[in-house]
Write a structure and sequence with these properties.
D-Amino Acid Oxidase, Chain A, domain 2; 461 residues; 10-stranded mixed β-sheet; globular; binds flavin-adenine dinucleotide; 20 strands; 11 helices; alpha/beta; FAD/NAD(P)-binding domain
Length: 461
C-alpha cells in the first residue's frame, strides 16, 4: 500500500508561502538541497561570511526529504564503529572526527539560542542493547580507543550475572562496568533476557523537519538582501568553471561563485567540469540508496523521552531503533509518540523513489510489529494501531562517512552530503565546516574530506 505519513511533516507549522526566486540575483554561494544539511550550511555561511550572499535551492519543499522522514534521534556516533575508524585511519584522525561530530551538540545549542527555536528538543542518556559477543567486543574496543584518545563517548555496561563475562577477552575486561542483568534489561526497557550488555551514550530527540523549517524562517527574517530561497527549484545541471559555476534550473541560468551540494546524495544533476577531469561519471554511482521504514504509535505521556537502539546479531541482521517523546500533533495534546525503525530495502535506482508514491510493504509493518511486541516492555499487549507509517531514503557512502569539503578536481564545487543513517549532527557540523572553507581557511586533514581521486565518496575507501 502507498503510504508515507510522517509525524514530523504532520507537525510542521509552515507559516510562509512556497518561496519563489527573485528575478535578479547575484549570489556568491549557491546551496543545493533544503534539508537539515542545506539549511545548516546556509546558517553558518551567512553568519561566518558576512560579505557573502547565499542562495538556497530546493527541488521540492524545505525539510521534506530524509530530514522529514527519519527517526529524529540525535546521536554523535557514526554508521561505522569508532574502533573500525581507528583501525582504518589511525587514532589521531578518527579521534579528530569524533571530536568534530561531538562539537555539533554545542553548534545545535548555538542555533537554538540564537534563532530562539521552539521545536521540542530533549537530551538524556540513551542506550544500545547488545546480545552478541562480537558486537560487545567492538564496543569495548570503542571504549578503549576513546580513552586512549582522551575522549569519553561510550560507557559499556555488561551483565555480571550471565556467561558473557567469562567470554570477554582479558585485554578488554577493564573497559566495561559489571552490573546486574536486571539493570541492563531496565535500561533497555525490555524483558528480552537475550540482551546482556548496554552501551550508554549522550542522545537526544528532535523533529529535524520542524527544526529546519524554523531555522529557514529565521534566516529569511534575519538576512533580507543576503539570503534567497527558491522552493520547487530543481537544479538540472552545474557547469564548473575556474572561478564560478553556472546552474541550470527550469529555463533559468544562475551564475554563482561557489556551489555546495547538500542533496543527501541523490541529486539528479549533471555536473560538467570545464577545468579538468570528469566528475560526473563517478558521481552518481558512489552513493547506495536504501529505503528505511518506520512506524509510530501514541501512548499516554507517562514516561520520559528516550532513544534506544537494539543492535543486530548474526541471526537477526536488522538494527532497530526506538524513540519516545512528547507529541503535540493531535487535537487533544498530551501524548507520547513511540516510533520504531529498522527494516530497510536497498534501491538500485533511486531516481524511481518518490516519497509520496512509494509502497509501505505489509512485511515491513509486520517486522516492526513483531519486534516491538517482543522487545519493548511497555508495548500495548493487543494489536497496535500505528498512527504513523513512513519511509525515507538513506544514502550510504562506501566509507559510511559524510563527505564534507571542496571537490579536489574543482573547489568551486563543495559537498555536505551522505545520509548514512546518522545524519543530524553530521549535517550541522558539515555546515560549520563548509563555512570555514568558504572563508578560505585551511583546515586540518579530515576523514570527511572528499577523496583526491575524483571519486566523490572515496574518502577512506
Ligand atoms: C528512515 C530514516 C531514519 C533516520 N534516522 C536518523 C536518526 O535517527 N538520526 C540521525 O541522525 N539521522 C537519521 N537519519 C538520517 C538523516 O535523516 C539524514 O542524514 C539527514 O536528514 C540528511 O539531511 P540532508 O539535508 O543531507 O538530506 P535531505 O533531507 O534528504 O535533503 C536533501 C534535499 O535535497 C533536495 N534535492 C535533491 N536534488 C536536488 C536538485 N537537483 N535540486 C534542488 N534540490 C535537490 C531534495 O529535494 C531534498 O529536500 C535517518 C534517515 C532515514 C531515511
Amino acid at each position: 500500500m502507498i503510504i508515507n505519513n510522517s509525524p514530523w511533516i504532520k507537525q510542521l507549522k509552515r507559516t510562509r508561502p512556497p518561496a519563489e526566486l527573485p528575478k535578479e540575483i547575484k549570489p556568491d554561494v549557491a546551496i543545493i538541497g533544503g534539508g537539515i544539511a542545506g539549511v545548516s550550511t546556509a546558517y553558518f555561511t551567512l553568519k561566518n561570511n558576512t560579505d557573502k550572499k547565499v542562495l538556497l535551492l530546493e527541488a521540492g519543499y524545505v525539510a521534506h526529504g530524509a530530514t522529514g522522514h527519519n527517526a529524529g534521534q540525535i546521536v554523535s556516533y557514526f554508521e561505522q564503529q569508532f574502533a573500525r575508524l581507528v583501525e582504518k585511519f589511525g587514532l589521531k584522525l578518527a579521534a579528530r572526527a569524533q571530536d568534530d561530530i561531538d562539537s555539533a551538540w554545542l553548534l545545535l545549542e548555538e542555533i537554538y539560542n540564537e534563532a530562539r527555536l521552539k521545536t521540542h528538543f530533549s537530551q538524556f542518556t540513551g542506550y544500545a542493547g547488545i546480545k552478541d559477543l562480537e558486537e560487545l567486543i567492538i564496543h569495548l574496543k570503542n571504549r578503549k580507543y576513546s580513552l586512549d584518545a582522551g575522549i569519553n563517548f561510550e560507557h559499556v555496561l555488561v551483565s555480571g550475572d550471565t556467561v558473557i563475562t567469562e567470554k570477554l577477552p582479558n585485554e578488554l575486561k577493564d573497559f566495561c562496568v559489571l552490573v546486574p542483568h536486571k539493570e541492563i534489561l531496565a535500561r533497555l526497557e525490555t524483558e528480552d533476557k537475550s540482551y546482556v550488555a548496554a552501551v550508554a551514550t549522550r542522545k537526544g530527540v528532535m523533529n529535524s523537519a520542524s527544526f529546519t523549517e524554523e531555522l529557514v524562517g529565521y534566516l529569511i527574517t534575519k538576512y533580507p538582501g543576503r539570503f534567497y530561497l527558491g522552493e520547487k527549484a530543481p537544479v538540472s545541471q552545474i557547469t564548473l568553471n575556474k572561478n564560478n559555476a553556472e546552474l541550470i534550473l527550469d529555463n533559468r541560468k544562475i551564475i554563482v561563485g561557489k556551489v555546495v551540494l547538500c542533496t543527501n546524495g541523490f541529486e539528479k544533476i549533471d555536473i560538467v567540469n570545464n577545468q579538468g577531469p570528469d566528475i560526473n561519471s563517478k558521481f552518481h554511482k558512489s552513493v547506495v540508496g536504501a529505503v528505511g521504514y518506520m512506524a509510530g504509535f501514541l501512548e499516554k505521556p507517562s514516561k520520559p523521552p528516550t532513544a534506544i537502539s537494539y543492535l543486530k546479531t548474526s541471526e537477526d541482521p536488522v538494527y532497530y531503533y526506538l524513540t519516545r517523546r512528547p507529541y503535540e500533533g493531535e487535537k487533544d495534546n498530551g501524548h507520547n509518540l513511540v516510533s520504531i525503525g529498522g527494516p530497510e530495502a536497498v534501491m538500485e535506482d533511486t531516481r524511481f523513489y518518490q516519497p509520496q508514491n512509494h509502497d509501505f510493504p505489509k512485511e515491513m509493518e509486520d517486522d516492526i510489529d513483531q519486534f516491538i511486541h517482543k522487545t519493548y516492555k511497555y508495548a500495548p499487549k493487543n494489536n497496535i494501531e500505528y498512527k504513523f507509517k513512513w519511509h525515507g531514503l538513506m544514502g550510504y557512502t562506501p566509507s559510511g562517512l559524510r563527505i564534507i569539503g571542496p571537490e579536489p578536481l574543482n573547489p568551486v564545487l563543495m559537498y555536505n552530503l551522505g545520509c548514512n543513517g546518522v545524519g543530524i549532527l553530521p549535517s550541522i557540523y558539515g555546515g560549520k565546516r563548509i563555512s570555514l572553507f568558504l572563508q578560505g581557511k585551511k583546515l586540518p586533514k579530515s576523514i570527511f574530506d572528499p577523496a583526491p581521486n575524483h571519486k566523490i565518496a572515496a574518502n577512506g575507501v
